[in-house]
């Protein structure tokens, strides 16, 4: 008998964590009560399709518009635009995997696409998740050096440097997906009569809990804590610089944009990380009640789904609040024959923007 823990995609997609010979009675809680695994299935069958569908539609449309504007204006790209282009591609590729996970949750049979597609989809998701997080860190570091130290780590004179940085991000993200290529399998859970795309840690003799703990530590450290440290340091320094050196309304506007970027990032990902840490601490606790286990499983589903919404918010945070992006989008729509009216206020805002005029690295079409 095999059972699974969790449905969060970052939580090893799902995790095979009980011994392959465990009996029905082994999956029980304090007092000998057997946990109803179908309750979690019913919850995810309703919740996941709804939220993933929203994330998919909003994210693909938003990132699609962003990429369209960038491609249309490729002759005037800045360094930041290059990072945002790669970020948009990573977000789109991550979002296109959501329909398959939605199908797994909604279908009675579960995962019906086989092991090869399970490995490919899981690896694609992992690569683009890490790539998106690392690119956000690169953008924050680039802006920190430009605004705080007036130093150009990247420049138009050396375009290969920014391309090399993006390539390094993709390669490192691909390296982090190796566990998915090794462990992901389409395996049937006889207890729930459902096939799922999960990491099968029984392939090796080492303790399953060791592999599971290593997987989670890798995600916490590399996928959240390290990028968070970079974001906090860079944007805190930028905020201090703007606060003590800004008088123009445009700079105050940039102040609000930075706060929004940091707040939304942590609102999306902190709940999931806290939930996952609590779940790790509860793992192997024989006195854990079924109510606690069920609550943790539902919390992982909800918080991980909120995290994935960050891909849908990136175009808004890094593009749609930008004056230059709106201007360029208006120009494209006009070229397509649309008659659009712009207010005098919008025209006046075109004259200057701290993000768009302060330095080459911030002279971005998207921002």
What does this 3D model show about the protein?
This protein has a two-stranded antiparallel sheet with strand order 1-2. A two-stranded antiparallel ribbon has the order 3-4. The chain has 367 residues and is mostly helical. The chain contains 13 helices and four strands. The model is unreliable at 1-6, 16-32 and 342-362 (pLDDT under 50). Strand 3 and strand 4 (194-199) form a beta hairpin. The radius of gyration is 23 Å and the shape is globular.
What's the mean pLDDT score? 76
Helical segment count = 13
Report the sheet-strand fraction.
Answer: under 5%
The SSE order reads EEHHHHHHEEHHHHHHH
Low-confidence stretches: 1-6, 16-32, 342-362
Q: State the distance separating the first and last CA atoms.
A: 53 Å
How does the major sheet shape up? 2 strands, antiparallel
* Strand-pairing-aware structural class: mainly alpha
Task: Estimate the global geometry from the Cα principal axes.
Answer: globular
Helix content bin: 55-70%
